[in-house]
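Question (not urgent): is this output format expected?
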Amino acid sequence: DSIRISAYELNINDPASVAETMPRIIAGAGGLDALINNAGYILWGCLEDLTLDELKAEFVTNLFTVLRMCQTVLPYMRDQRRGTIVNVGSIAGQIGSPAGGAYAASKFALHGLSKVLRMEVAQFGVRVVLIEPGLFQTNLLSNQILGERAMDPASPYSAYVQKIRRGQSSSHGWAGDPMKVAKTIGKVLASKHPRQRYAVGTDAR
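Got this back:
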């Protein structure tokens, strides 16, 4: 069987882009069954070395835009009395790691947002599910953003972060197949009564 896919360019960090594009997507599809919030990145560096502006940017992408997308689709889902919102978090939202504190904080916050939103919108027939993957073979680590002072030789954390970086570079070998996460999301969308949270991957469980 073939599946017709339509692609749209959308900048989730730009409110105007979201407001202009999402109605076109929904109109083109004739409705809206699901929203999957999967965008995000890792800001890497020990917390003392990160600037507040760097931390704010992490939260804008990993948390605030998730809420923006949810707020954009919820009127449509409420009107049709059904829909599923899947927020892709991380096991880092349960267990943080050194030099990954900013990312962990954003995913801890996403966990709380998803849990409360699920309770609030259930009355309208809308389900909210949080997926928390462990480490998978994606570009998340290679595309992580280093804080400006993260690798500063003058930092009191310099030797520490270099040791962490060496360990991180060897972790990709045991990372899982991301298709496992995709299949889990597929099962959530097909389920009549999905759970609030799914940990995916051996390390996550």
